Amino acid sequence: MRSLLKLWAFTLLAVAVEAQRFVRFISTDGKEYTGDAVMPAGVTDASKSTSAKVIRGDILGDFEITDTVKPIRTLLAPIAPERVRTVRCVGFNYIAHAGEANVTIPEFPILFYKPWTALSTPSDPIPVTSGYQTQGNFTSKMDYETELVVVIKKAGSDIPLDQALDHVLGYSVGHDVSHRGWQIERGGQPQPQYSMGKGADGWAPWGPAIVSTDVIPDPQTLNIWTKVNGVTMQNETTANMIFGVKELVSFFSMGITLLPGDVIFTGTPSGVQLGKTDPVWLVDGDVVEVGLENVGTCTNALKYV
């Protein structure tokens, strides 16, 4: 009987700590909370959630899901930007995207970084300051990139491939906002200048939740898409990534410690404006929706400031 009680208590504890969709939000009382999104029946887009069970503790450490349910007024980035240690990004990680950009398929993942100040909410405007706007003979070339985002929960370095997913808290979707003029034309030729082309404040909206690995045990089976002003521009599957999540986590930990709260933007599929014969660049007021199956959508408008 005692062993049965212990098993029952352990089962309750396991249920108590297994969140499905981590969200950070402002409630109607004006306070900030972290919670487990309460999803309407048949809905998997966390941006459609209107309430969440409040989480006590730290989702990157020890936490408890309480029975307290709070209404969601505004969704924030799933982790406060200043708590994210490193934002790693991957270039040309889908075969078709490498082809449209006329880039040789890489033998190893192409890594670049964004500052944490680039991180933004799933709904705030994307600020485009004067240096990135059209000026003189310089035409603004703002482009979109939807990406699967990986969130690290457990520190590790030189992580073996078969243990890589053990270090993952869950998955999100992000928008790697890109300015091709600064990235390429004004970049460090003959190689791209990623930092000036991609690292501005607010140029990495992400969310609307971190969906746990319990919900998404295999991240290489998800539909991923982008809509610009309601028109679908990208529509592919993460199965077509050149380097999957396991490979990226393992590779990026080579001699480097991954820390809880690190995020990895894993690259974008084909369908961006880069490489098109007659590209239509994003301009002030354009609305970009990036989405990932079983995670949700981020919808952000470009705003010249």
UniProtKB/TrEMBL annotation:
The positions making up the signal sequence are 1-19
Which keywords annotate this record? Metal-binding, Signal
InterPro entries tied to this protein:
Fumarylacetoacetase-like_C, Fumarylacetoacetase_C_sf
Q: Where is the Fumarylacetoacetase-like C-terminal domain?
A: 87-301
Q: Give a GO molecular function annotation for the protein.
A: oxaloacetate tautomerase activity
Q: Name one GO biological process term.
A: oxaloacetate metabolic process
Would you identify the family this protein belongs to, as annotated?
Belongs to the FAH family.
Q: Name it.
A: Fumarylacetoacetase-like C-terminal domain-containing protein
Organism, as annotated: Amanita thiersii Skay4041
